[in-house]
Write a structure and sequence with these properties.
Helix content: 55-70%
Distance between the termini: 92 Å
Strand content: under 5%
Structural class: mainly alpha
Largest sheet: none
Order of helices and strands: HHHH
Number of domains: 1
Number of helices: 4
Radius of gyration: 23 Å
């Protein structure tokens, strides 16, 4: 094999799995879904762009629990 052919193949595989690579590097919540979509449907432009969209969209913020202040015990004497 020619070195250029191998280099083009490696670059092609890297571009094919780019959404999955980004999803695992960003530690997105749905990284396994992105990998499955990318693996099975990445050959279509729709599947590849769907995987890329799922990777790059803003994560939904998780609500932080608010603590209610507890009243201080009364010291009636």
């Amino acid at each position: 094999m020619d070195l250029i052919t191998v280099a083009i193949g490696v670059i092609g595989v890297g571009l094919y799995f780019l959404p999955s690579i980004l999803a695992f590097n960003r530690e997105t919540d749905n990284r396994w879904l992105v990998l499955v979509i990318n693996l099975f449907f990445g050959g279509t432009f729709v599947g590849w762009f769907l995987a890329l969209y799922l990777t790059l969209r803003k994560p939904t913020p998780t609500p932080t629990p608010t603590s209610t202040p507890t009243p201080a015990p009364s010291r009636d004497l």
